[in-house]
Amino acid sequence: MPKATNRRRKRGADEEDTGGGSANKRSATSVLTSLDVNDAPRPELPLFQLNGRHGGDEEEEEEEVTGGGGGGSSSALAVVAAAGSGQGPHQQRRLWVKDRSRAWWEQCSSADYPEADFRAAFRMGRATFAMLCDALGAAVAKEDTALRAAIPVRQRVAVCVWRLATGEPLRLVSKRFGLGISTCHKLVLEVCAAIRNLLMPRFLRWPDAAAADAFKARFQAESGVPGVVGAIYTTHIPIIAPKVSVAAYFNRRHTERNHKTSYSITLQGVVGPDGAFTDVCIGWPGSMPDDQVLDRSALQQRAAAGMMAGSWVVGGASFPLTDWVLAPYAQPNLTWAQHAFNEKVAELRRVAVDAFARLKGRWACLQKRTEVKLQDLPVVLGACCVLHNICESRGEEMDPGLRCEIADDETVPENPVRSDSARKARDDIAHNLLHSGLAGTKFF
Description:
Blueprint: H1 2-17, H2 21-34, H3 58-66, E1 78-82, E2 92-96, H4 103-108, H5 115-122, H6 126-140, H7 153-166, H8 170-177, H9 181-203, H10 209-223, E3 228-239, H11 246-249, H12 252-258, E4 263-271, E5 277-285, H13 290-295, H14 298-304, E6 312-314, E7 325-326, H15 336-362, H16 377-393, H17 420-435
Parallel strand pairs: 3-6, 6-7
Antiparallel strand pairs: 1-2, 3-4, 4-5
Pfam family, one: DDE_Tnp_4
Main location: nucleus
Protein name: DDE Tnp4 domain-containing protein
């Protein structure tokens, strides 16, 4: 009993020192509330848990400091800013700047850096890279702050291009450019979004009437097949198993071939005679066959509106024969004319396959599971397709050692022939190829 009395007396003395019981109650409430806000320090916890997050969000705390960084990074010291007078330590904010080396990027950006090494690192020459920076400058540039200079446009674009080109994890990108991991991730998404919004309308678009006629003339001169405006192909991009709809993204064919559980999304593209993409459809789950992806694409909507009349898009056996999609004969015991037709279709389809091989070779991030979230991945893949077109249009040679071999995962469409008129048109083309001497001799 005396001990309890002493504790009550001591508590009463504390209340008198703080201005009464009600004042003490408000003080305790403010402390408990401050534990839920970002500014509440917890000295007993690591830095990345000061705002109530777990260890997986460590770089998010660092982002407050490194997000606008770009000038010389300071040493690892704490900058403590009080919000006002009379505040306790729990209302102070601590910002940390980690010392990182930018020697590699400074070397790459110097004028005497070898052109061959620059091209190997960024899959494009300096002139193309400078054009890219000029085109994106207004969209990705940031202003300097009172604490530090903003990251230059060239460095922002370089972070994105190098990440797409190498597919290296963000922690290695961070070491290369001397920036925070979360900063690099944000830069990649920002630059990819700018490429999609600003450059895709310029460099990835369906050909107009004049360009379509030129495409048809080039394809016919090479193969003898009239009216071909492009070749279509669908590839798969590996992803980490999503948290929702896992079965939809499960890729059975890749799993069986690689003996490893695989998940993917699809990338359907139409390619012109110069190897550049004219249409892309990105993001459908990997379990979806090629004909179903086609049915859900904007290309199908264009055809339904009558905008594909008089034109063919050549596909493989996984695509159905329609009034505008020209697919090979799939039945057994083919005639000579049908063999000849299939040969020419394979040659035309090879244009799209080679384009996808260069796409995945240039941008190695498409060959491995990425750290990008599933909802952000279509923007990144679209940016890769645009950058591919830019490199193709500017004659950027790709190292043959980077070429990626494309594995065919052709599926059988539920309805391989969807149009009787298309069936007759295909028979006429096959007959003309054979009797005009354009058939080839592989099947003899």
